[in-house]
Amino acid sequence: MTVKDLNTATRMTAQNAMTKALLKRPLREIQMEKLKISDQLLLEINDVTRAWGLEVDRVELAVEAVLQPPQDSPLQQLAPHLLEVGMSSVAGCALPLGQDTLKIVSEVELPAPHTGAGPSLKQPVAEGLLTTLQPYLSETLVSQVGACYQFNVILPSGTQSVYFLDLTTGQGRVGRGVPDGIPDVEVEVAEADLRALLCRELRPLGAYMSGRLKVKGDLAVAMKLEAVLRTLK
């Protein structure tokens, strides 16, 4: 009754717990403390799944190989439009490499700040989202999601900017302000967390469970935002 797809929800919970536990650990520590980390993951996963009537019996963490850092992707190319000038941290952002693979974060120094043309310092991250997300919208995405979202983005100044993503008709559309009709879901998120979601450093379910993503409406519909983020690969 709590979740529509128990298997998918459990997988997402496990993936988010694993990402949180492993993201900033060096590979040597992961290899040496696999059993300890697995026990920690088991506790964190069961904290969530027991409310669904499911108890995970065992978590086994297998580090088979070190994955190579991802090559430039469309998300990395559009990152300058999403981040403020001088904040080009996407080089250290681990992009998804598959459903059951391990994310490895580059520990090298960040590149020198980008000095070319780009959005102004006053332009919020969400403005970049508006200008870069539109080309990725499609009838296929509309058929997968079929919902209208209102984003209340909290800026560093404490003010709030409102945007909408309508994936109910046609190829979908995105814009500033409230949608024409009543949104299926209202999402409140800080600007920095929005950036983390776009870099895939943060998953929607993990953001919700940690309180960084506040949802008003159907949680299952809100989690369909994962399909939107996948289009930015």
Question: Main traits of this protein?
Answer:
alpha+beta, Nonspecific Lipid-transfer Protein, Chain A, 10 helices, 233 residues, five-stranded mixed β-sheet, 38% helix
Description:
- The chain has ten helices and five strands, in the order ααααααββββααβαα.
- α1 (6-22) packs across α3 and α4 packs across α5 (125-133).
- The longest helix has 17 residues, at 6-22.
- Strands 3-2-1-4-5 form a five-stranded mixed sheet.
- 38% of the residues lie in helices and 13% in strands.
- Among the domains are: 6-52; 125-231, Nonspecific Lipid-transfer Protein, Chain A, CATH 3.30.1050.10.
- 25% of the residues are buried.
- The chain is globular.
- With 233 residues, it is of the alpha+beta class.
- It has helices at 6-22, 27-32, 34-49, 74-82, 125-133, 139-145, 191-198, 204-209, 219-222, 225-230, and strands spanning 147-154, 160-167, 173-176, 185-190, 213-217.
- InterPro entries: Band_7/SPFH_dom_sf, SCP2_sterol-bd_dom, SCP2_sterol-bd_dom_sf.
- Residues 138-229 form the SCP2 domain.
